[in-house]
Structure formats: structure tokens, C-alpha cells
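Fold this sequence, please.
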Amino acid sequence: METERRLVHYNAWANRRVFALCASVEGERLRETDGGSIGSIEQTLKHLVGVEDVYLQMLEGREPGGGFGSQDEYFGHDIAWFRARSEEVADGYLALLDGRDEAWLEGTMRVPWFDFPMTLRDGLLQALTHSAQHRAQVFSVLGAQGVAVPDVDYVLMMGEESGAG
């Protein structure tokens, strides 16, 4: 389970980098529709957190979407709310993994929009790799616009945490 915990920790670290960068970019730029993501950068970041949130709910054995009102209410929050929610979701994933073992990861989960079985490990990996894809899209779009984007390699996080970075 240490690998999964490290991946969740890395995902939170990388999400902090993308949200920090976007906090320094003018708001209008974040709301422009671009061709490199699922709409605007703001929509992409909201989608990123929303997917992490819904997968956490399913991994916890809950029905997806509960607790935050309608989908419109959830996605109606501003980007600062999603930045904070990203941290809360990361804490939720770490709490979820506490006390779990490899056998737990092999359990199955129901994902209502797929018609094939998924293990809990696959659900966790889907949430984390999905976020990596969308962070890359955001960085690519902003980089193409001349914004200096951070590197989010795992080894850079390791160096930073060791005091070398």
C-alpha cells in the first residue's frame, strides 16, 4: 500500500502546483475555451477535482455525487473552492488507504458509467492518472500561451521533500 500512498501524495503535490500556477494567471485566461483540454482551463481543473471526488466516494462504497448538491451546484463553485476541495479530497484518499491492505485493493467497485468490473486498485489508478492527463493539458495550453509552467516530475517532489529541491 506504500506505492498507492506515495501516488496519492504525489498527486496532491502536483495538483497544488497546477492550482498555484493558475492562481497567478489572470482569471479571464482561465475561462477562455482552448483546444487543448475539455473546454477552458477552469472547466478542466473543476473536472479534474470532480472526478477525484466522485472516485473517492465510490472507493468509500458510497453512491457518486452525494454531499454537495446537484452537479450544477458543485461545478458552480469558483476555482478557489476547487483548489481547497482538491486538498480535502487528497486527505480523503490518504485516510481511505489507512489501515487497508493489498487484499482490499482487489475488491470490486461499481462505476455506473462503465459496463465492466473494476477493482478498487483500478478505480484509484484511474482517478490519479486521469488527473495527470488533465494537469498536462493545462500546462500545455498555458505553456503555448507563453506562461512559464512548473515541472511536476515525481523526483522533483522527492528532492523538495528531502530539502535538496
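The chain has a mean pLDDT of 93. The beta strands are 108-109, 118-119.
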